[in-house]
Structure formats: C-alpha cells, structure tokens
Amino acid sequence: MRVVFTxxxxxxxxxxxxxxxxxxxxxxxxxxxxxxxxxxDAPRLYDPSLPAFEGTKNATxxxxxxxxxxxxxxxxxxxxxxxxxxxxxxxxxxATQKKYVAWDEKAxxxxxxxxxYEVGGKRDEFEAEWLKLLEGEEPGNPGHNRxxxxxxxxxxxxTIKSAKAAPLLVKIAAxxxxxxxxxxxxxxxxxxxxxxxxxxxxxxxxxYHYNFNTRWNAQIAxxxxxxxxxxxxxxxxxxxxxxxxQHLGANLPAFDPTPVDxxxxxADQKLKSWCDPKVQIExxxxxxxxxxxxxxxxxxxxxxxxxxxxYPTADKGAATDKISVQYAVLELGKQVGLGYxxxxxxxxxxxxxxxxxxxxxxx
Length: 363
Fold this sequence. Notes:
The protein contains 12 helices and 10 strands. The chain has 3 domains: 2-81, no CATH class; 89-248, Alpha Horseshoe (Leucine-rich Repeat Variant), CATH 1.25.10; 301-363, no CATH class. Helix 2 (123-135) packs across helix 3 (149-159) and helix 4 runs antiparallel to helix 5. The protein is of the alpha/beta class and 363 residues long.
C-alpha cells in the first residue's frame, strides 16, 4: 500500500509493500495536512483510544474505488473516493479522438456492456477467476465467439478496479511480439479505465503501434491517466511524463524514449509498412478523417482492393483456399487500415457473413 499526503504546499509519499496499521499519533497535530490518499485497503488503527490524527483537523482521507474497509470517516477524519482518472477527461479530447471513442463503443458494444461485469457481493470470487484467465496462455483470434471470456476478464478486472490486474494488463498490451491484436487493444482500453499510472510508460510506445485500435486506445488511455493531451506525439508524452511523474504517484518508473520496432524484426514488408508513421496517418485519416458525423458510419475508402493470400485460418478446420465472407471483409479492412464492426456485421449480415467463398473463383 502507498500513502500519499500533502503538507501545505509540500508533497510527500510513503511506499511499502503492505501498510496494515497506523500507530497512535502517526499524523497528530499536522496542522498543514489537508489530504491523504490511501492507494490500498484501509489500515487498522493501532489504538482507537490514542488517535492517529489527534489535532489534525483540516485533512480529508481519500481512497481508491474498489479498495476495502473504508467508511464515512477514518480515524475521525472525513473520507472521500478519489477516482484514478480525471472526471472530465472526455472534455480534453479533440474532435477526432471523440469520433474514435464513439465509433469504438459502437463497434464493440457487446464487449463494453457493463451488465456483464456486475459482481454483486462476489467481487473476490470474480476477481480470482478473471485473474486466473489472464495468467494463463493468451488465446488467439476469438473469431465468431464474441465476447470472448478472455476479453470479459480484461474488462471485468478494470471495472472492479482490481489493483492486481495492472501488471497482467500491461503485459498483454505492451508485449513486443507480432500477434493478433484484439486482446492487446482491449487491454490498452482497460488500463485507461483501471487508472494505474504505472502503466503510462508502457502505453506511450503504443501510440505508434501498427494496429489502428491499439494506437487510438493508447491516446485515450493516456488522457484518462494524466489529464493531458498530446495526441499521437510519443516524444511529447514521454518528456511530459518524465518531468511530472513524481507528482503522479510514488515510485513510478521512468519512460525510456528508445523507439520500439513493433514489427519485431519481421521480414514481412506489409507489416513493416504498417509501422511507417506516414502510412498510419493516412490510414487514420481514411478511417476517421472522412467519416460521417454518426458513430455508425466510419470513413469509406473508395478504392479497389485485392484480397491476397495467405487467407486467415481463424476458423478451426478452414481450408487454405477459402475464407468466410466475414473474414474476407476483415482482411480487406486490415489492408487499408480500416476497423471492423463485429456487432453490426452479425446484425446486418448473419448468417450470410459466415458462408464460405473462394476469392479466386470468378464464377
């Protein structure tokens, strides 16, 4: 648990693996103390008859959503919940970022449904189950089976503000391997919701990841975590974070500005091209710059695109010379940098979208 407090204009921090109790007089007669932030569960007071905050009258005790043991007062001082993300982070977004957020929520409406993550009085049981899923092997593309339990675990842990989830989510989001990026961009979004500022250095290089959703969710998550907005400018984000990290929390890691090669040394020329900033900007403009004012209609690209082999084999047992209509559209979208709205596809074309086609068959 970390305890962060402010004495007048002086900010100080105490960090420990686990603060279980406060001794008598720990913060007695601290007349300049105005606020204390407890990052973990409420510690025990060593002796209630000898107050920890005797003579300290102007302070408020703040705690994080999802932590336990807090009441309306603590040691005689009033308490209040301090959300990890700025309450008005949406107002900090520019027009294009707002457009992406609206499209993203529409495209993944079933994944983001908060009703899926209502845990009632079984928070610990759900947390343990979801953590176990993420500690296991990361599955491949979930295909038609959405929302996938792995994705639900990612969002569930963020929704209940599980402090234990942050390292697992960072690993999924920032793993430097070429993989299916669905779980990656879900984890990036979840880190913004979770509010753990220790994730900031891992999120900054994702601003130029070749996956469209990953790099845009990285922008949004960084705004949520910092209350700042430097768009896709990783250099600006890194400089600001390293200059201000001591004010964001105790013992936050520094940001390493060394550029990350998200192609991971792959010889795939198409993948390398997707890592080119100019290609990414063009793809983003096609997706968001030409979109209509409604979230349901991301930008349309008026160009001829040819689906090239190898075709994806996300469906078990699929033959190498054929592909479902849905995955054909998905692959075409990837080639031009467009996303894919699963729920809209199912609603408008299912079961047609699951039929098999042979792209090279001209009949």
